[in-house]
Structures are given as structure tokens and as C-alpha cells.
Amino acid sequence: MLNQQKSIIGVISPSTCKLKEIQHQVPVVSDKALIDLVNGIQVSKDIIRYRKSRGWFNQLIDKLDGSDKKRKLLLDGNILAGQEALYNWVLELTDSLRISQVALEVTQNSLLEARDAIRSQKQRLQKQEEALLALNSQFDKLVQQVGARLNNLEARVRQLEIRVAANEDLDQI
Hints:
By secondary structure, the protein is an all-alpha fold. The protein has helices spanning 2-9, 14-25, 31-53, 56-65, 67-172. It has one domain (29-172).
């Protein structure tokens, strides 16, 4: 019995295999992208804080030696990198949503198939129960008929035995 249960449990349905394939396709949101985004935000905050803390004379020197332009390029690069990370993250989420929707459709179809199979089995069971009740009724009628016929035959046999016994008595006289 236990071996039968193990073999039944070990059977994998096609819909389960399809769901496992879909799970392998779901992209994991990259931790690196999130870390890069947070680091970029921190660097941008530091650059803005540094620029605010500089006096107008130091800002003029920064503009003359080009360091202000370098910081601005770095800030713009961080903003662009952050936007790209968010864009890639949204794409991954969209793909994940699409795959989840496909998985839900597969699950829904499997549930509908299971429901139809259960309904079909229920109808078959109901028909078999009706047929069994009809057979039981016919069997009861047959038992009654055979019983009545047997009683009739036994009565006739008794009558014949009485006649035979009476004839033998008559023959002996």
C-alpha cells in the first residue's frame, strides 16, 4: 500500500512540469542593480552637498579649473545610471508579470480540466449507482419469482408424493 502511494505521489502531471519550466524563466531582480542605484544616489547627494558648501569664490575656481564640470558630469552619469537601473528593473518586473500571468492561465486551465474531470466522474458514478439500484430491484424481483416458483414446485412434489404413496397403498390392498 505504501509503495503504491509513493508511486502515485511520484507521478508529475504535465501542468506541473509546465509550471516548473515557467519558474525557471522568471528573472530574479538583480541585487547589483539596486546597490548601484543606492550608491549612485549617495554619490549624487555628496556632490550636491559639496557644491552647496562651496563659497562663490571656490565655485569660480572650480569653474575655471574644470572640476565643477567633472562633478556635474559625474552627477549626470549617476542620474543616468539610476534611470537605467530603474528601467531594467521595470523590464524585469514586466517580464515577471507576464510569466506570472502565463502561470496563472496554466493553473486556471488545469483547474478547469480538473473540474470537468470531477464532474464527469460524478456523472459516471451517478449513472452507475442508478444502474446498480435497477439491478438490485431486478434481482429482488427475480428472487421473489424463484422463491414463488420453488414453493409451487415443492407443493406439487408433496402432492405427487402423497399420490404415489396412496397408489402404493392401493396396490398393496
